[in-house]
Amino acid sequence: MALSKETVLATLQSVEVPGGGTAISRDLVRALAVQDGVVRFVLEGAPQPELEAMRPTLETAIKALPEVTSVTVVVPAGAPRGFGGTAQQSQQRGPAIGGHPKPQQGPQKVPGVKKIIAVGSGKGGVGKSTVASNLAVALTRAGKKVGLLDADIYGPSLPRMMGASKRPASPDGQTILPLQAHGVTLMSVGLMLKESEAVIWRGPMLMGAMQQMLFQVKWDEYGPLDVLLIDLPPGTGDVQLTLCQKTELDGAIIVSTPQDVALLDAKKAIDMFQRLKTPIHGLVENMSSYVCPNCGHEAHLFGHGGVAAEAKALGLPFLGALPVDLDVRLAGDAGTPIAASEGPAAEGYAALAQGLVDRDLI
Ligand SMILES: Nc1ncnc2c1ncn2[C@@H]1O[C@H](COP(=O)(O)OP(=O)(O)OP(=O)(O)O)[C@@H](O)[C@H]1O
Q1: Is residue 129 annotated as involved in ligand binding?
Q2: Angle at 154 between CA 108 and CA 265, to 5 degrees
Q3: What is the pLDDT averaged over residues 24-46?
Q4: Structural domain range at position 81
Q5: pLDDT of residue 342
Q6: Most-buried pick from 43, 56, 81, 238 (CB within 10 A)?
Q7: What is the pLDDT of residues 263-277, one digit of tens each?
Q8: Residues 183 and 81 in one domain
């Protein structure tokens, strides 16, 4: 009888590996290929020395199968640290982030959260995280209990923008306790990983991480949330899809600059949400205009009014225009969003927040 994938998986499941458990129970096996007696797979999801230590055990076990002619087990160089491990290890260093998504029946509510709103953009660098962090603070100032999840796995900037850098605690090695900054309950993949780790993840790892960020984080740690804002990565990839499939998403806000290239990508993001049946709560034009602080001249660096026009054409609400403002950038870099201060920029965000509250979206 020809060697099957199931036989190899069953063998891997039966062998205890150094560090405890099996490579299957610890979700360490990726890209298993079995063909004509040749077995190949990748070991990923635990510290590299641990993976190297278990490689010979696994190779020996697979080679012992009668139909096997060769075995190749690959441990990628620089495998992420801090994933996987036994329950005891994971309790010591906090929960493992990333891994295959767990089976789940349909979209589920996130415990302790009334509404979930995604903040997305098509293009990167248009100010999505700036808008998400400031909107979170403005909504908090308007009396709402707000959570903010940084799902921008490839460039998590919310810890810096919100002035939070502590690694979240996990008393039982499973539940993750979010941080609190400027009155906002905050969690970011960036707080759980070393800077270079997430960028090497493939789709399933990203999807697993998203699922954990939604369901393993104790979002009501500081009281039940009226809304959880999710800062998405730019584009229309695995994170966006996971979010729409795993949770009951109440709506999405799309941020764009008025520039044609940004708008083109924003339309793709809108199309994706519409196809996934997520209501679009509205569009925000960021970097809409620039008023020279010296002479008062108003310039339109990236064009002007394009997002409002697009919203009208698509029959979607236009939520507001936010100018290019040096203070907005400096405040973000300093870890205190401008919405936490007084002045015209903070008022712009307060108006954006109030508009959402008035329409009963939050
Ligand atoms: N209205 C604004 N005025 C001045 N600077 C801004 C404004 N909006 C965003 N910025 C600055 O532009 C840069 C990019 O913004 P931000 O990180 O919010 O964009 P993003 O769309 O989330 O990017 P990414 O694609 O990396 O997630 C940041 O340095 C931010 O401070």
Answers
A1: yes
A2: 80
A3: 86
A4: 5-93
A5: 92
A6: 43
A7: 888 888 899 888 888
A8: no
Pocket of ligand 1 (CB under 6 A): 121, 124-130, 152, 155, 157, 234, 286-287, 322, 324-325, 328-329, 332
Question: So what's the pLDDT on residue 104?
Answer: 62
Phi first, then psi: what are they for 330, rounded to 5°?
A: -65, -40
Determine the residue of 137, 230, 329 to mutate for testing ligand 1's pocket, defined as the one with the most ligand atoms within 8 A of the Cβ atom.
Answer: 329
Q: What is the model's pTM? A: 0.75
CATH of the domain at 45: 3.30.300.130
Phi-psi sector, 47: left (phi>0), alpha (psi -120 to 50), beta: beta
Q: 204 and 331 in one domain?
A: yes
pLDDT in tens, 133-191: 999 999 999 999 999 999 887 778 899 999 998 888 887 777 899 999 999 999 998 88
Question: What is the percentage of the chain residues whose pLDDT exceeds 90?
Answer: 42
Angstrom distance (rounded) from CA 41 to CA 46: 15
Same domain, 82 and 120: no
- Tell whether 122 and 219 lie within a shared domain: yes
Q: Where are the beta strands (DSSP E) in 94-183?
A: 113-120, 146-150, 179-181
Using CA atoms, how far apart are residues 39 and 67, in angstroms rounded to an integer?
10
Helices within the chain (DSSP H only): 5-14, 48-63, 87-93, 128-141, 158-162, 189-192, 203-215, 238-246, 260-275, 306-314, 326-334, 344-358
Cβ count within 10 A of residue 22:
17
**Count of structural domains, the chain:** 2
Shared domain check, 312 and 259 = yes
